[in-house]
Design brief:
Number of strands of chain A: 5
Number of domains of chain A: 1
Number of helices of chain B: 14
Oligomer: heterodimer
Strand content of chain A: 5-15%
Largest sheet of chain B: none
Structural class of chain B: mainly alpha
Distance between the termini of chain B: 26 Å
Number of domains of chain B: 1
Helix content of chain A: 55-70%
């Protein structure tokens, strides 16, 4: 056990060093990404040097075109995690189906979790539900059922909310759905990647031009790259948080502050 | 003894309804910094509660008198006519919305937002979309208040009849419907999925409560609502709600929020008019009635005149506000969305609302009507702002 712990700590310390070397304009939104809860199974998987992550999402977890799969955030996350966690095998499986609501994803969840046995599931959802106007109670119930399924399947979970899209901002009422996701994350004690706040911040700071009507994919690729990198940082922070909890040093809240 | 319908218009109603209309406009502009001033950020309830309550109050005030003077049938017919006007106004707004969304759909392309483009899918099925919109089942974002108002008005005649005879029984029936709605999770269906964003079966409680107050309930309640224990309780509740609201915006404060409390109270259900929201509105109302008396001299001040004018022409100004919030967002997207632009479009929008309200009031005067009064019976009620 002690060997395992020191192994994990070593890996995490290395990742901290690697992280410091990174600087990019999109990381200005970093203060909006914080692990409120630990990811103990990710920490354990890092200890085993074998980390499997599943991304379950809809269209906004993908990019179109032949390069799409390699440039979308799940692939960028894999890359960033390899950089953070040298010597650890990182495998990412993506299930992204267009127009799937949270309830539809929740149904597929049980099966795919058994098949792939991921250490962590990144569950991106909310946009389709908001567009369709799915009943809020039903949306909440789907989230909570899904998170319970993951809990039973002994997998960590992480929720990712919607993209910020200024042009359709007045047409899709995201507010109460985003709130429900925040609430479900809090209730089930899983971290939330607040993509909505992060992208809004990028827009405000002028990091990306999210207004432009363009067929070009370069901005979209850079946005996904940044999401992948911030997500990697959140996952590593979550593992650190769980780890410090494991060896019982200090409050979870202060631990994350110290390590960041 | 049947309740007495008080004579004379209470300008406070116009004032607060006018202010509520401004707040609804500001809240409906997405990513608008100016909306930080609106009350939804400082407690549980928001401008919708004010609007629904005052609408119930004025509906009972106007049609209650009508029902006594001209009988149940005539008054009911006029309520339904009003509901029809609101329906037409809603469909008019829907057409404007369709024009905007169709324009954006044809001009907007970005591979980052393939998923968000899904919001345009209904344009591919105009037959289904238009029919569902006419049935009030398909309601675009931010266009949920008028359908609620339509249903509340359509169901109002029997309630008004009962309110005039047995007001306490009517209020009890309304509360029972609210309780049953919560117990059995009743709501009206929406398209393409889900249910109404403002559940009329729950929100009717506030509308009927407003009507009940207008028909003498407020006077009967006064000794209670003006007593110092009630006012103290109201003030404490408003302060606690304010403190809790602060934890939504300042992550550092969230740690002071006891876990049992958040588990008990969240989510605060706007769809079904959460009891916490209703209570928050009641607390605000009790404090307002106490500190802003009916004969308050400020009501005559030119400073408050713009808001009062808006409140007296609420349907027109409400619709204009929804349109202006689309237009303001559109301008922000097409031109610039900086803070100064947000302040500019917010201010221009309110100026446009006031100017329109002043124009309609002038027009009513030309027609020989007092602001906010009933039209003389032979005239067609084209643009009444009375309920």
């Amino acid at each position: 056990m002690r060997g395992l712990i020191s192994g994990v700590l070593g890996a995490l310390l290395l990742s901290g060093a690697a992280f410091g070397a990174e600087d990019s304009a999109c990381l200005v939104a970093g203060h909006l990404v914080h692990a409120d809860f630990g990811l103990p199974r990710v920490a354990a998987a890092i200890g085993r040097k074998q980390l499997t992550i599943m991304v379950l999402g809809s269209t906004s977890s993908t990019l179109p075109g032949p390069e799409g799969a390699a440039k979308a955030y799940p692939a960028r996350l894999e890359e960033a995690l390899r950089h953070h966690l040298p010597g650890i095998t990182v495998k990412i499986v993506t299930y992204a189906k267009a127009r799937d609501t949270a309830a539809e994803m929740e149904k597929t969840l049980e099966k795919v979790v058994v098949d792939d046995k991921p250490d962590l599931v990144v569950w991106q959802t909310g946009t389709v539900d908001a567009i369709m106007g799915v009943d809020l109670d039903a949306f909440r119930a789907a989230l909570e059922d899904g998170l319970d399924t993951l809990q039973t399947a002994k997998s960590d979970a992480l929720l990712m909310n919607m993209q910020y899209s200024p042009r359709t901002d007045s047409m899709i009422a995201l507010g109460s759905y985003a709130e429900s996701m925040r609430f479900a994350a809090l209730q089930r004690e899983v971290p939330l990647f607040d993509r909505l706040a992060v992208m809004k911040n990028w827009n405000e700071m002028g990091v990306f031009d999210l207004y432009s009507a363009t067929k070009k994919i370069d901005v979209a690729e850079r946005v996904h790259d940044c999401i992948g990198r911030l997500l990697a940082r959140l996952i590593v922070d979550g593992a650190k948080l769980a780890h410090t909890g494991l060896i019982g040093s200090g409050e979870p809240g202060s631990a994350i502050k110290d390590l960041r | 003894m049947p309740p007495v319908v008080p004579a004379g218009r209470d300008l406070r109603l116009d004032l607060f309804r006018g202010l509520a209309l401004w707040l609804i406009f500001l809240d409906h502009i997405p990513s608008n910094m100016v909306s930080w001033i609106t009350i939804r950020n400082y407690g549980f309830s928001d401008a919708t509660e004010i609007f629904v309550f005052i609408s119930g109050y004025t509906a009972a005030f106007v049609y209650g008198r009508e029902m006594r003077e001209r009988g149940t049938v005539v008054a009911s017919a006029r309520v339904l006519k009003r509901a029809w006007q609101v329906y037409v106004a809603h469909i008019f707004l829907f057409v404007i919305y369709m024009a905007e969304i169709a324009y954006v759909a044809s001009s907007f392309d970005n591979p980052l937002y393939n998923e968000e483009m899904g919001v345009f899918n209904f344009l591919k099925q105009p037959d289904v979309t238009l029919i569902q919109a006419l049935l009030l089942k398909f309601k675009p974002a931010n266009m949920d208040v008028l359908p609620l108002y339509i249903v509340l008005l359509a169901g109002f005649p029997p309630m008004l009849w009962l309110l005039l005879r047995r007001p306490t029984l009517a209020l009890a029936a309304s509360a029972l419907l609210y309780a049953l709605t919560w117990t059995f999770e009743w709501n009206l269906p929406a398209y393409p999925a889900g249910t109404w964003v403002f559940n009329p079966l729950a929100w009717q409680l506030l509308f009927v409560f407003g009507a009940w107050c207008a028909l003498g309930g407020a006077d009967r309640l006064a000794p209670f609502s003006r007593s110092w224990p009630v006012l103290t309780l109201a003030a404490v509740y408003v302060v606690v709600a304010f403190a809790i609201a602060m934890t939504w915006y300042f992550a550092g404060l969230a740690v002071y929020m006891p876990r049992w409390l958040s588990e008990w109270m969240y989510p605060i259900d706007k769809v079904n008019l959460d009891v916490l929201r209703f209570a928050h509105f009641l607390a605000l109302a009790a404090l307002t009635v106490r500190f802003v008396p009916r004969d308050w001299s400020g009501l005559a001040s030119p400073l408050l005149r713009p808001a009062i004018l808006c409140g007296q022409n609420s349907l027109e100004v409400f619709c204009l506000g929804i349109f202006l919030s689309f237009a303001a967002h559109f301008a922000m997207v097409e031109l610039w969305d900086g803070v100064s632009m947000q302040i500019l479009v917010s201010a221009l929008g309110i100026v446009a609302m006031v100017a329109t309200a002043a124009l309609i009031t002038w027009y009513k005067k030309v027609e020989g009507r007092k602001p906010g009064s009933r039209p003389t019976p032979p005239n067609a009620d084209l643009a009444g702002g009375e309920a």
